[in-house]
Structures are given as C-alpha cells and as structure tokens.
Amino acid sequence: MRSTYPQANVAHGEAGAYRNRPSIMLAKQMQEPLTIARTQDGDVLSGDAGDWVMQYAPGDYGVVKAARFAKVYRDA
Fold first, then answer.
1. 3 Cβ contact partners less than 8 Å away, ≥ 6 residues apart
2. Fewer CB in a 10 Å sphere around the end CB: N or C, the chain?
3. HSE (side-chain half, CA atoms, 13 Å) at 46
4. Is residue 19 part of a domain?
5. How many CA atoms lie within 13 A of 19 on its CB side?
6. Angle at 1 between CA 46 and CA 37, to 5 degrees
7. Helix (H, G, I), strand (E, B), or coil: what is residue 6?
8. What pLDDT, in 10s, does the model give residues 15-66?
9. Which residues form the domain of 62?
10. Is residue 32 part of a domain?
C-alpha cells in the first residue's frame, strides 16, 4: 500500500507537491471466487479468482481486483 505525504514546505492537506511512500501490506491472491466478512460485525466482501485479499489492520480486510493490484502494488 502507498501512503501519500507532502513534500517540503507543504502542510498535510494543503495544495502542493505530494509523493507516495511504500508500506508493507499483508495480501493473498485468491485462486477461486471468495466471500469474506470485512470486519467482525461489518460488510461482506466478494471477489473473483485472481483478486487479492488485503489486511489493512487486524480484523479489517478488503478485496482488490487483480488488474488494480497489478497497477498499484508490488511484491516486496
């Protein structure tokens, strides 16, 4: 996952130059269609074979389509 940070002389949230800083994410590519609970009490997520399940925090998940994952993420 990438987080966006302001460059020099720009306060966070103000107009100006920003850059991405990579961070480590837990992810697993699914080999078959899936359905999972996003959180313990929350939404149900679904995905196709080839999509990725991402863990943002303990108990907090998301599904990223394979094409989007290939554009945005990279293996460490």
1. 20, 21, 23
2. C
3. 1
4. no
5. 4
6. 25
7. strand
8. 877 777 777 889 999 999 999 877 677 788 999 999 999 988 887 888 999 9
9. 25-76
10. yes
